[in-house]
Amino acid sequence: MVTIQDIANKSGVAISTVSRALADSPKISVKTKERIKKIAQDMGYTPNFAARNLTQRESNTVGVVFQPQAAGSAENDFAMQLLFGINSQLVARQYLLTTATGSNWSEVYNAVKMMVEAGQVRRFILLYTVENDPISELLRENNARVVVTGEPEQANDVLYVDNDNRRAGEEATRQLVDQFNLKAPLFVRTLADWRYE
């Protein structure tokens, strides 16, 4: 495994310079950063996220929180595709994904609490919105950065993605009807009680 010391030896600079260059510090010139990053890449260097997390007191992990799930919901391909999409964006930015779920709100809350306290996770995506949410309150108390899918139940400074599924379904149906001149569209769903379909 290639270390920062190996990169420093190869580039002829101090370990602190390599560390700052790899962290994109403004204290290091662009030319030096590019040279050090190129050497690191050529040597196959992989950042030690655990060490960086310890020094920053915050992990490079994003917690994705589901509302309680019924047994068998893992079979839902839409939920898996959602996680794959989120993960691909996180990996491109050198973040890890972890999920919190459970069969009831207490289990979900405890999973999130463990992420915050033991895992030092400070970035979250909530795949639900409910009124008077204790999980949102826990994250607010711990200065976590949160994105909610769906318009929040209470008006506050929450960053959210407006996923008006009903309107999206109407617009998609209208486009299909118009584009293909459909006369009798049919919506097929499973018998499973999935949160997403």
Commentary on this structure:
The radius of gyration is 22 Å and the shape is extended. The protein has 197 residues and is of the alpha/beta class. Helix 5 links the parallel strand 1 and strand 2. Helix 1 crosses helix 3, helix 2 packs across helix 3 and helix 6 runs parallel beside helix 7. Helices cover 46% and strands 11% of the residues. It has a five-stranded parallel β-sheet with strand order 2-1-3-4-5, with helices on both faces.
What's this, in brief?
It contains 8 helices and 5 strands, in the order ααααβαβαβαββα.
Gyration radius, rounded: 22 Å
The CATH architecture of the largest domain is 3-Layer(aba) Sandwich
- The shape is extended
Superfamily at the CATH H level of the largest domain? Answer: Response regulator
In percent, how much strand structure appears in the residues? 5-15%
The CATH topology label of the largest domain is Rossmann fold
Low-confidence runs of at least 5 consecutive residues: none
CATH class of the largest domain: Alpha Beta
Please describe the biggest sheet, giving its number of strands, its sense, and whether it closes into a barrel: 5 strands, parallel
Report helical residue fraction: 40-55%
Between the first and last Cα atoms, what is the distance in angstroms?
Answer: 43 Å
The averaged pLDDT comes out at: 83
Please give the domain count.
2
SSE string, helices as H and strands as E: HHHHEHEHEHEEH
The DSSP helix count reads 8
| Structural class estimated from helices and strands | alpha/beta
